[in-house]
Structures are given as C-alpha cells and as structure tokens.
Amino acid sequence: MSAVTNASGSGSPDARCSSAGCSATGRTIPPPPTVLMDGEALADFLAVAAAEYQLITPEAPLPCFALLLGSAEATTYHVRRVAFGRNARTSDPAALREFRETIVPKFGPAYENEHRGWWMDSHDLLRASREAEALGMDLLGSIHMHPDWHRLGPPSERGQTLSERPTPMDRHLFGRTGWPLNIICYLERRDGEFYHALGAWAPPPQHPAEGSQGAECPEVDLRIRTSSLMKA
C-alpha cells in the first residue's frame, strides 16, 4: 500500500524537496524538527482517504496520497494544507519502468498489481510546487494512507499488519525522494466508524544507493492543531 511519486524515479530527488530539509550526502543530519499540522489540512486528507478506503477490495488496494505544503523553520515544519494529484502509476513510462525493474524485484510480486502504489502525475507535482511558491510556502513532503489490510486484503496477505510505521517499501521511497517530511496515516473501520493514527518520519540517514536500504527512518514529533476546540 506504499505510495510512490515520480520524484522516486527522477534521478534528482533533491530538486523535489524543501531546501530547509535537504543535506549533502554523507553530512550529519541534525534531529528533525517538530511537525505542526493544521487540523483543516488533516481533515481534507482524511475525507479523501475515507472515500478511497470504501472502494478498496482484496484485488484493488487503492492508495491515497497527497503532498504537504507549509513552512519550514529551524525547529518546526508547519503543514498548512495538502495538495492532491492524479495517479500516473500505469501511464507514466518512468513509473512502469521503476516498478518493473526496481520495485517488483526488490519488494515482491505484490507490486505487480497496478492498484498498489502511487506515482504523482508530473504536471500535478509541478502545479502543487507552483501553488506553494505563490502562497509563500514550501513543498515539505507527502502523506499517504495505510489501511487495515490484514482485514481487507486477500487471505494470502492478511498476515501483513500495517500501521502508521513505515514499511520497507516506504523506507526505500522516503530515501529516494529525499523529502524531509513523510506522514503515514493508518486508517481502519470498526463497527462502521473510522479510526486513524498518524506517524511522521524523516528519510533514512543515508541514501539507499550507499547500501543502507534497510536503515530505519527517524520518527518526527507530530502535533495536530486543536485551536477550533480551544476557543473561548
């Protein structure tokens, strides 16, 4: 259920991430800042994620993916809005090549399923980047959904319990894109009600090309703005 963007196959992921979160290869990376996320931005993502969730079948593990727009400062990333785009997973030649030559051999035949994974349309990625620039914001990273696949998936895959923690595929992609912020939203439904959990992650300390594909992603402190609940 991991998300993929065309930055992962661009060959120049540093061009796609906020300058505030990028560092030269081999340079010591300081502890990641705290993430502050506006409740409205999260609500916008959850509304789309819940709609996609209801369309998931054992044969179609539909993804949900969005870009994070906001501001980057020395000690905080402030996520102010999300930007959606089209999935070019089955139409972009670079996406088809990346899945065929890298992702499927590395992570298994489950990723041959064209419904698994997200590859942001390059035009929509550019549009979101320009939108952020026009608003005086940065393109901070991405957010994607992990559903309760151990309930929704086919019997052969129900031993895989997803959560808000990154999978090996996520770690690979977070390293490839180089975006400083990667949020995972775990979404499940119990007795007709939706529940979610969030995790925020920095990319692995070293680039995967240096042989550290299995490196863990540092967890980033995440705070959701609750001003609407605290007004007098």
Any overview of this molecule?
By secondary structure, this protein is an alpha/beta fold. Helix content is 26%, strand content 23%. The protein is built from 6 helices and 8 strands. The protein has an 8-stranded mixed sheet. The longest helix is centred in the N-terminal third of the chain and has 15 residues, at 39-53. The radius of gyration is 17 Å and the shape is globular. The termini are far apart. Residues 4-26 and 207-213 have low confidence and may be disordered.
Précis, in short:
The chain has helices at 39-53, 93-107, 122-134, 149-152, 168-177, 227-230, and strands at residues 34-37, 65-72, 76-83, 138-147, 181-190, 193-201, 219-220, 222-224.
Global shape: globular
| Beta-strand content | 15-25%
> Largest beta sheet, briefly?
8 strands, mixed
Give the oligomeric state of the chains in this entry, treating copies of one chain as homo and distinct chains as hetero.
Answer: single chain
Q: What is the CA-based Rg, rounded?
A: 17 Å
What is the total tally of β strands? Answer: 8
Low-pLDDT segments: 4-26, 207-213
Mean pLDDT: 84
Encode the helix/strand succession as letters: EHEEHHEHHEEEEH
- Secondary structural class: alpha/beta
Helix content: 25-40%
